[in-house]
Design goal:
Layout lengths: L4 E5 L2 E5 L3 E7 L10 E9 L10 E6 L2 E9 L1 E6 L4 E4 L4 E5 L4 E8 L6 E9 L10 E5 L6 E4 L2 E7 L1 E2 L2 E2 L10 E7 L4 E5 L5 E13 L4 E4 L2 E5 L4 E5 L4 E8 L7 E3 L2 E3 L2 H13 L6
Antiparallel strand pairs: 1-21, 2-3, 3-4, 4-11, 5-10, 6-9, 6-11, 7-8, 7-10, 9-12, 13-14, 14-17, 15-16, 17-23, 18-22, 19-20, 19-21, 19-22, 19-23, 24-25
The chain binds manganese (II) ion.
Manganese (II) ion (MN) binds next to β5 and β10.
Length: about 280
């Protein structure tokens, strides 16, 4: 059964970190509407007269995974585990914060003068919220693409036409794809029943679902249940497709932390204050 659209979200401008202007489709809320996904931010700076972009100076995370996908420019990254590096165009960083990391994320302009990309937050189940932190750093050249009839699909996580994404062993069993359709192309993709499915349309426009609802960039589409997702485009479209297994646990979000209870949030804040947040 093809998935219908239940909601189309218009991303809202928000300021985060040190004066970073973002388009946020949704953020962490107790209602947990897009379980297992907690947040989707789109950052895009292309005004050459903008001042320097500071980005996100050292900050903690606990209880979640943050997924950074860069389209243009780069993000310089450094963390409490001793990792440091540049996430460049087409690269992905899938960070499992578990019990805690401190990191900084500093956007840098590319040769064109612009910076663009996405950050997705994925929830962790209670049993993994305090797991050992880890990173999967994936360079653009190792992300495979599936090609079919005018559709090109970069597979970050999950599987398309036998092409498997390099990100594995994630609790939410996610699909994360960068899908480009040429003008006149149509595409359908199996998505496991009962998994949450979202599409962030960021270039062009397409007709989504069995009702062929037209959606133009930039919008987040929320799909109803079903076992496949359909899209076609007259003029070309590009979107991020994400799907994942709902965790179905209560959540207590607080800034960069998402835990299950308020007491766990208080504990994280206490550990930050007394210097025991990062464990060797
Ligand atoms: Mn962060």
């Amino acid at each position: 059964m093809s998935r219908s659209i239940v909601q189309i979200v218009e991303p809202q401008y928000v300021i985060e970190g040190a004066d970073v202007l973002l388009r946020r489709s949704f953020g962490p809320r107790r209602s947990n509407d897009y379980d297992p996904f907690l947040l989707f931010d789109h950052f895009a700076f292309n005004d050459p007269v903008e001042g320097p972009i500071q980005g996100f100076p050292m900050h903690p995370h606990r209880g979640i995974e943050t997924v950074t996908y860069i389209l243009d420019g780069s993000v310089h990254h450094r963390d409490s585990l001793g990792n440091a590096g540049l996430i460049g165009p087409g690269d992905v960083q899938w960070m499992t914060s578990g019990r805690g990391i401190m990191h900084e994320e500093l956007p840098r302009r590319g040769p064109t003068g612009s910076i663009a990309g996405f950050q997705l937050w994925v929830n962790l189940p209670a049993a993994l919220k305090m797991t050992t932190p880890r990173y999967q750093g994936i360079s653009a050249s190792t992300i495979p693409a599936a090609q079919r009839d005018g559709a090109t699909i970069r597979v970050v996580a999950g599987e398309v036409d036998g092409v498997h994404g390099p990100v594995t062993e994630i609790a939410a069993d996610p699909i994360y794809l960068d899908v480009s359709l040429k003008a006149g192309a149509a595409w359908a993709c199996p998505v496991p029943r009962a998994h949450t499915a979202l599409a962030y349309v960021f270039e062009g426009s397409g007709c989504f679902g069995p009702e062929e609802t037209p959606v133009e960039a930039v919008r987040m589409i929320v799909f109803d249940d079903g076992d496949q997702l359909e899209v076609r485009s007259d003029s070309g479209v590009r979107f991020m497709l994400m799907a994942g297994k709902p965790i179905r646990e209560p959540i207590a979000p607080y800034g960069p932390f998402v835990m299950n209870t308020n007491a766990e949030i208080q504990q994280a804040l206490q550990e930050l204050r007394n210097g025991t947040f990062i464990k060797a």
